[in-house]
Amino acid sequence: MYLREREVGNLVAAQASGFHVVTKRTALAASAVAAFVILPALATLRLPLGPDEVGLVLYPLKLSEGLVIHRDFFSPYGPGGNRVVQGVFAVFGPSITVERCVGIAYHLLIALGLFVLARPLGRVPATAAGLTCAVCFLWFAPAAYAWFGGLALAVGSLALLANSRRPAVAVIAGALAGLIPFWRPEMAILWLAAVPLCVATHRKLAYVVGLAVGAIPVAAHLATAGISVFANAIASRLSVNGQTSLTNVDAKVWILLGLSVLGIGVQFWCSHSSATQRPLFLSTAILGTLLMPQALQRTDVYHTIYAACVILPMTAATLISRLDAGLVARTLTPLRLVAAATAVGVSVAVGSLLIYQLPWSTLESAGRALPVTPDSRQRLSQVMATLRSHVKPGSKVFMGSQDMSRPGVNDNELYYLLPEYRSPFFYLELAPGASERAGSPLVQDILSADALVLRDTPREATDSEYPNVTPGVQDANEIVKANFCLVDTVGVSQIYVRGTC
């Protein structure tokens, strides 16, 4: 029992000095967390390119051509993640496997960051946090999503603040936080999670100095890309966020949302039971609260876990630390009894959910990573063959949808699969709430193209996916009718070439 007291005493001394010696047990625990993240992810490296991953491979290649994200082509995300992948591509060569290794690195940094963030609570709570995060990542085939890059920076920043009182460390923590909007601009709100830790240790100025340093790349990008950054990453993001339809919501979503809200409440509650750890509990609770809008962006399991992968691990660490504190004190107060009961309840709920999920989680991750079914794989092959028979290499081929006055899905994987054609277009992916608006660059994209591949997207699918986006102008559709001739239809795709029929 008293080992716990001695361990906490050592950690308090470490916070004051700015460092602490990593013991063999701590290293082993961190290694176990890393193994639980890396080993399952390795099994997904050879899966085919997924629809959500096309931009993660394509956009870094565009940056290598000298193009500027937001100014020269659309993206709702910041340039940071694409720059990282671009740099890794420069060393190891462009490939899906290399991009996914960046995604695994993001997952690893988040899990180990939570381990370090919870370390002041003790080794066991820290290990529980890291392993719970690793379990959450079993739901995903790893990809270099900008969200996870920004989340890794946010968690790493708080971990530094929680483990050292040195002003220099606070500057580094601030610099990491300052980089967050370089990955996703709207994630800058996560800076607020650092307030309790900074106020409690009088490091507000040092943290703000770090923020200013970390924000330099963001400022440089704003100076280069201009006002288009806001049109890309803010206006278009607001138009598609908030899936308000609650019909046919999977029960797993409600379970995860319920556990997340409960976890945030537990962390706020426990902040009143521990004077020494109150700033940490408040910071993690605020972080979880600020992550909830992402969980509600779409009513599906994956968006829910984007937030739960931080909230649930810190909830586990918080409950275990409070229970352990009660055992050390040899007194179980009503508050500690409630915490213990909650810990057991959450563990049973999460365990039951995982037992229900694990038999299909690997298969679903694989299925989600597959860009096409056998039928659609054949369709894409036929589309490629038709293009090559009607359009000469070096021509500009645009991938769109058959009704570009509404949100749609295009075959943008063909940009990656057909490198012999040029794609100097702004909308490499159709941007709901942006591409169909009057005066958007979509019109220039179509006018400059030599050929088009237009995919049919069921209206009911887009209405369900983007309930807040209203139909736009018909300009793009009219330009197709006036300037292009349909040469073939392959499944849901139509191939057009410039000219009159």
Structure description:
By secondary structure, the chain is mostly helical. The protein has 2 domains: 2-369, no CATH class; 374-498, no CATH class. The chain contains 21 helices and 4 strands. The chain has helices spanning 2-17, 24-42, 54-64, 80-92, 96-117, 123-136, 146-163, 167-183, 195-200, 204-214, 216-225, 228-240, 251-270, 278-295, 301-329, 334-369, 374-390, 413-417, 442-447, 459-465, 475-483; strands at 397-401, 451-455, 484-490, 493-498. It has a 4-stranded mixed β-sheet with strand order 1-2-4-3. Helix 5 packs antiparallel against helix 6 (123-136). It is elongated and about 80 Å long.
Summarize the structure.
By secondary structure, this protein is mainly α.
Task: Quickly list its features.
single chain; elongated; four-stranded mixed sheet; 2 domains; mainly alpha; disordered N terminus; 501 residues; 5% strand; 63% helix
**Amino-to-carboxy terminus distance:** 84 Å
Give, in order, the helices and strands: HHHHHHHHHHHHHHHHHEHHEHHEE
Proportion of β residues? under 5%
Mean pLDDT: 82
Number of helices: 21
User: Which residue ranges are poorly predicted, with pLDDT under 50 across at least 5 consecutive positions?
Assistant: 1-19, 351-373
Strand order of the largest sheet: 1-2-4-3
Structural class: mainly alpha
Main beta sheet, described?
Answer: 4 strands, mixed
Number of strands: 4
Question: How much helical structure, as a percent, in the residues?
Answer: 55-70%
When the domains are counted, the total is 2
- Principal-axes geometry comes out as elongated
Q: What is the radius of gyration computed over CA atoms, rounded to a whole number of angstroms? A: 25 Å
